Amino acid sequence: MNYEPIIGIEVHVELGTASKMFCGCPADHFGKEPNTQTCPVCLGLPGALPVPNKKAVEWTILLGLALGCTINEESKFDRKHYFYPDLPKGYQISQYDQPLAIGGSLELSNNPIIQSSNNPIKKKIRIRRVHLEEDTGKLQHAVVDGQRVSLVDFNRSGVALVEIVTEPDFRSVEEVDLFTKKLQQIVRYLRISSADMEKGSMRIEPSISMRKVESRKSKVESGEYPNYRVEIKNINSFKFARKAIEYEIIRQTEMLVHGDTPTQQTRGYVEAKGVTVAQREKEEAHDYRYFPEPDIPPMRWESSQLSAISRQIGELPDAKMKRFITAYGLSAYDAGLLVETKERAEYFEQVIRQKSAVISLKTIANWIINKKVDIEKTSPAQLLEQIVESTVVSAITDSEMETIIKQVLLDNVKAAEDYKNGKAQALMFLVGQAMRLAKGKSTAEILKINIIETIKI
Ligand code: ZN
Ligand code: MN
């Protein structure tokens, strides 16, 4: 019997606002002395009142719009209750039934840079919602005076957190990988978060279940979903996300093959062992006892406000890549590398605006990509200077070229014959020999052309 994975994901992204979501504490908590960035609001002390961060709300709308979502005309915050020591109020301020943004999508296209498999994926992933909430504190397990204790650091408590929830549209690990990388790229393009997985600014929670392929209604991929799902919490690297999902696919398939149904639950990924372990039975929405946050009035948006935010989206990676291919005649691969970050793409365009006619676009693209130019330390003018200098140094005279090629053909008569007889590999061998003699003063491409020309004669 064949099973296919049904995967949906939730992604949490910490916004890069200067202050936290509902108070004035600095939001940059990474590596700070524990409990130094707190106040009565983010410590949940009685009587403290939350005041929403305007920038965080605007940035959530910005992301929603960039993902093709509809912005709810009216939106509100709700209290989501659960008891855990990293949540000082006993509830998290989140959004329940009126999130800021709903119903978007993200196209997984064949980006040669972030495409992880050889089979190009072309597919639209539906985005159910994008909402805004606050991050929790952090538990640290330590030994104090010989006692094992759990310590709480509230520096992260109350940091603005965006949650992106997809529909269960993924059918493979590769699709999840592509989506999360693309989402990270878009978040960075919008400059609303560093989205650093290692620092916990972006965290992935996949929900996985397995479905019999035969149980699909017709050939439609959606059809009916299994009656259980397993959620894996807080994964902080693309690699671990892949491994955790792969592990779940095998674990659940084995259970199903043996006639068991996996339990609906929340599991954690244990990095050291490469396995997932049960944490708790999955809560239903009613377990959280959601109700509207009484201390924050609902939000309403005029269409003029939304279009003002929409104008800030700018050109996103896919559109930029397409333009680089058509406007500059670059390969998809080069264009993909250049637009990988917005900074690199903008740098490339600054350089080509300043370049002289003798330097080709392709040369500039190659330099930025292959020489890994430090774009923060090298101004466009400096880069152009470097390119001009190196062209002069590497110039090789015609007679030097002739000597090299003659020598190579003389030393490798057999290979030259083989090439004449149609063995393409022999040419690469000759080019390699010529490269040795040229000592870096010419390129493989130029040497190849000269060898072919000489052999023809
Ligand atoms: Zn605070
Ligand atoms: Mn959440």
Write up what this structure looks like.
Helix 3 links the parallel strand 12 and strand 13. The chain starts with a strand and ends with a helix. The chain is elongated. It has 457 residues and is an alpha+beta fold. Strands 2-6-7-10-1-11-12-13-14 form a 9-stranded mixed beta sheet. A 3-stranded antiparallel beta sheet has the order 5-4-15, with no helix packed on it. Strands 3-16 form a two-stranded antiparallel ribbon. The chain has helices spanning 54-66, 173-189, 238-257, 303-310, 317-328, 332-338, 342-354, 361-370, 380-394, 398-411, 413-420, 424-438, 444-456, and strands at residues 3-14, 70-71, 74-75, 78-81, 91-94, 101-108, 123-134, 138-144, 147-153, 160-166, 202-212, 230-232, 265-270, 275-281, 291-292, 299-300. The longest helix is centred in the middle third of the chain and has 20 residues, at 238-257. It contains 13 helices and 16 strands. The mean pLDDT is 91. Bound molecules: zinc ion and manganese (II) ion. Zinc ion is lined by residues 20, 23, 25, 38-39, 41-42, 158. Manganese (II) ion (MN) binds at residues 12, 133, 163.
